[in-house]
């Protein structure tokens, strides 16, 4: 597990992480979400022992990560795919990490195959694309065959095939009972990959919940099908609803919940074929949750000419 308790981190007058507490459990892909500047990367750096917090603690399997003699065997992490020596080959880079953690050369070869870099294993990293560097960083995280994995924006630079490969990899790791923490701004991918989400804003915890519960908490509209859409629309309009016809003849109804729509239709003698509440997408739910925590918001000014 990853356990963060009462974590507080400050840079000068700026509070980056503010009394943050959460745990990341095995067997799940946990999404770590928040606007830019929310404190996600800072929290991950504290987990790895790269930053010393002002207060609180972060533990991996009940121990500080920095206290482990062979830490890559307990947790693998990718924070910055560019943090590599460009003059080394991919094989040499992984071999160096493996030796420092008592990992054999056979594992290096296996990981290179797993991340799809066997064909370029002896080429210099300086000539790699961002996507290739991401694959190498993911390989480094997998090197010790750890039970806990942590990735910060690993999808950056990956092509569609690479994104699908990583999605399947993360799911398989969780299915094996490993703990997986994934930070990403790509909400569509997070919706496909994550089981659970932790959302922070301005360094504070906003939500810690299963992903389905997060999106389902925010009702977007109610999908209604009826043989008499014109009469139902007129009725609902008089009760403050916003009714929008859909291309297939159904009605999208906002500002009234499904129960109220059903009661009104019954009172008006209007038959209903379908009455389905529709929850917000993960992106919509995220935007609503974090609207008061966004530090960097673009204006709607005129285009620059």
Helix and strand arrangement:
Blueprint: E1 2-11, E2 14-24, E3 29-33, H1 40-47, E4 55-60, E5 75-78, H2 90-100, H3 105-114, H4 130-142, E6 148-152, H5 160-175, E7 179-183, H6 187-193, E8 196-201, E9 204-210, H7 211-216, E10 219-225, H8 229-237, E11 242-245, E12 251-254, H9 258-267, E13 274-279, H10 282-290
Parallel strand pairs: 3-7, 3-8, 5-6, 6-7
Antiparallel strand pairs: 1-2, 1-4, 8-9, 10-12, 10-13, 11-12
Strand percentage = 25-35%
CA-atom Rg in angstroms: 24 Å
Count of alpha/pi helices: 10
Q: Which regions are unreliable across 5 or more consecutive residues at pLDDT < 50?
A: none
| Main sheet: strand order | 5-6-7-3-8-9
CATH superfamily of the largest domain: P-loop containing nucleotide triphosphate hydrolases
User: What's the oligomerization state?
Assistant: single chain
- Report the principal-axis shape: elongated
What is the N-to-C succession of helices and strands?
EEEHEEHHHEHEHEEHEHEEHEH
**Can you name the CATH architecture of the largest domain?**
3-Layer(aba) Sandwich
- How many domains make up the 3D coordinates? 2
Structural class: alpha/beta
Terminal residue distance = 52 Å
| Overall CATH class of the largest domain | Alpha Beta
Question: Helix amount, in percent?
Answer: 25-40%
What's the average pLDDT? 90
CATH fold-level name of the largest domain: Rossmann fold
Explain how this protein is built.
The protein is of the alpha/beta class. The chain has two domains: 2-210, Rossmann fold; 219-279, Alpha-Beta Plaits, CATH 3.30.70. 32% of the residues lie in helices and 26% in strands. It is built from ten helices and 13 strands. It has helices at 40-47, 90-100, 105-114, 130-142, 160-175, 187-193, 211-216, 229-237, 258-267, 282-290; strands spanning 2-11, 14-24, 29-33, 55-60, 75-78, 148-152, 179-183, 196-201, 204-210, 219-225, 242-245, 251-254, 274-279. The strands form three sheets. Strands 5-6-7-3-8-9 form a six-stranded mixed beta sheet, sandwiched between helices. A four-stranded antiparallel beta sheet has the order 11-12-10-13, covered by helices on one side. A three-stranded antiparallel beta sheet has the order 2-1-4, with helices on one face.
